[in-house]
Each structure stands twice: as structure tokens, then as C-alpha cells.
Amino acid sequence: NAGVTQTPKFQVLKTGQSMTLQCAQDMNHEYMSWYRQDPGMGLRLIHYSVGAGITDQGEVPNGYNVSRSTTEDFPLRLLSAAPSQTSVYFCASSYEGGNLGTQYFGPGTRLTVL
Amino acid sequence: SQQGEEDPQALSIQEGENATMNCSYKTSINNLQWYRQNSGRGLVHLILIRSNEREKHSGRLRVTLDTSKKSSSLLITASRAADTASYFCATFDRGSTLGRLYFGRGTQLTVWP
Asked: Cβ(B47)–Cβ(B61) under 8 Å?
């Protein structure tokens, strides 16, 4: 199993550009989520999904869109990048959606918005 | 926010010493989890303790949970330089919208050889 994979590893955008961060898992997990990590802020939940076709907002959803058309993939779209979205983005998945057991994290995408 | 909050923010010890990190949270929880993050890497799950458990062990890790004080502690015994990392607690709030897991800001542990 590859676990949770994220692409790209690094990305530089200009203000106003859009892009999609990819996340995929091969563990047949129902629950997937996106976090951003900023210095001194810990991890903050952006969006999450409890299954294909079901998504919901986390703590900091503004400026981001998600969709979940398959169990495996959970892409995160930045609609119009802003410098405030410079961060490290982590995708995670879990088998136990309702009780939220062990989260498996991807290696992260380091995004810089100029 | 229902974040857990770790204490201390930073901890520096010598190899062989024990390291204790604490986590406090605000609301009733289903379970509490501890994660580790090496610099520049993703988080790795260490241990999960359910709300009806008081103590759990895994190798050199010992986790306690006191739901009356809304706090947990992570003890790493006989620390090694390889334990140098950031440690996060995460809580799933029983009353929150399904699927929300909240992380604290972490404790940065440095273990000197």
C-alpha cells in the first residue's frame, strides 16, 4: 500500500492563480480531510469528507473547495490564491469516520503564494 | 474552537531522561490521540485513548487521560535523540459536527545526545 499520497510536494503561485492539490489513498478509507499548518498555529481543518459525495467545512474553509467523487481521491482547489494561503497542506484519511480513529497523513504540500 | 492545547510549547532534555507533555481540552470527547511530526514530514499516529480509559501504554510511551480535568499527558521514557520531534494531541468532540478532529499547537521536543 502507498498509503496517503499528495502532489505536488512544492508549489509556487502568483496571487489570483488557481490550482488543485491532489490527495489519494489506497486503504479504502471513508473519511478524508485537509489541514493547513502554519507556524505556531498547529493544524487547522479546512474541509473533510465522510464518504464519496459527502463533504463538509472545517475551521478555515474560505478560499478552498473540495469534492469527493471517489473513495480514493479528495482534491483541494484554491480558487484564487492569496498570500494568506501560503502554508503547508496535509491530507489525512481514516477508516473510522464516525469515531475518528487513527488518522493517516500524507507527506504534505508546501505552497507559497507571491 | 475545541482545540487541545499542549504544554509546554517547547521541551529540551538529555538522552535517557523522561519527557512529559500535557494536553488540555475544552469539551466532552470521544477519544484523544497523540501524534508525532518530524521536521518537514507528515504526522504519524502514536496512540489513541478512549474516553472510558485512564491509561494506555505503547512501548516507551505512556498516555493518561483525566476526563474530569479535561487533560491528558504523554510520557516518553528513556528518551533518545531520535525522539526529537513535535508532538500534537487531537480530540474528537462528541458534540461537534460529525467528522471534526481538532489538533493543538504542539510541543517541540528536543533530545540532546
From this structure: yes
- Separation CA A29–CA B73 (nearest Å): 29
- Tens-place pLDDT, residues A15-45: 999 999 999 999 999 889 999 999 877 899 9
Q: How many other CB atoms are found less than 10 A from the CB of residue B4?
A: 27
Chain A residues within an 8 Å CB radius of B45: 102-104
Cβ neighbours of B94 (radius 10 Å)? 12
Dist. CA B92–CA B1, nearest whole Å: 12
Q: Which residue shows C-alpha cell 474560505?
A: A62
How many inter-chain contacts (A to B, CB under 8 Å) are there? 68
Q: Inspect the interface and report whether the beta carbons of B100 and A58 lie closer than 8 Å.
A: yes
Q: Which amino acid is at A85?
A: Q
Predicted confidence (pLDDT) per residue in B39-64, tens digit:
988 999 999 998 899 999 999 999 99
**B99 membership: H or E segment, kind and range:** none
Neighbouring C-beta atoms of residue B110, cutoff 10 Å? 14
